Amino acid sequence: MMDKEITNIFGIRAIIEAIESGSTINKIYLQKGLRGNLYYELDKLIKQNKLATSLVPIEKLNRLSKNNNHQGAVAQISPIEFHDLETLIETTIGAKKTPLFLLLDQLSDVRNFGAIIRTAECTGVNGIVIQKNGSAPVNAETIKTSAGAAFKIPICKVDHIKDAIFLMQASDIKTVAATEKTEDLIYTVDLKQPTAIIMGSEDRGVNPSILKMVDKKAKLPLLGEIGSLNVSVACGAFLYETVRQRT
């Protein structure tokens, strides 16, 4: 399935029809200053479905559509189908597995995302959760970096990571945030119980409002002079500590 590339569709009417048909849309790129009845119809659907959008110059739209008549709008159709988180939690618990979920708080780099997906698949993660807006897309580069793992592990989208945390806690799944803002090392945290690990964005880490909600905060020891690890490397260390405890 590695040859399944992301698909771009262009033209306002075509995008409206894609949304109405239930296609999984990654992101919609819109030309700044669009007007007209058809655009307003599209804008209404975007808001109703809480789709990620970006206002871009016409040159980007020309590149994405290969200079076809895009009418100021290009949409990227996701190459994967996203899963419903609540259903996935229920299925995982019902399968008598010890749940292990990974929540990504607005991770933005597609290569980091792909690397994390690959490691998550290798460590038996039951599902990855991302936010609808502000997160790296599942595009061709993500899939390539994941070595195809994006097709093998369930990925869920939520309106906000807080929604996922509430669901985890309601299902007795302990939430553990990776952060330097703690004295507790990951090696002191019990990961043998149902667990959801939360990793933050590359530039600011886990959002402070999310840190207030989680059950536990943990960090990795840093013995050198550099103050932080790449997020995909840190995520791998957290996941393999989980594997070590559970093996």
What are the SSEs and their pairings?
Layout: E1 7-10, H1 12-20, E2 25-31, H2 37-48, E3 53-56, H3 58-64, E4 73-77, H4 85-94, E5 100-104, H5 110-122, E6 127-131, H6 140-145, E7 155-158, H7 161-170, E8 174-178, E9 195-199, H8 208-211, E10 216-218, H9 231-246
Q: List SSEs in N-to-C order.
A: EHEHEHEHEHEHEHEEHEH
- What percentage of residues falls in helices of 4 or more residues? 25-40%
Structural class determined from secondary elements:
alpha/beta
Number of helices: 9
Number of strands: 10
Largest sheet: 6 strands, parallel
Give the name of the CATH superfamily of the largest domain.
Answer: SPOUT methyltransferase, trefoil knot domain
CATH architectural category of the largest domain: 3-Layer(aba) Sandwich
Q: Strands of the biggest beta sheet: in what spatial order?
A: 7-6-5-9-8-10
Strand content: 15-25%
CATH topology of the largest domain: Alpha/beta knot
Number of domains: 2
State Rg. Answer: 19 Å
Stretches where pLDDT is under 50 for at least 5 consecutive residues are 1-5
CATH class of the largest domain: Alpha Beta
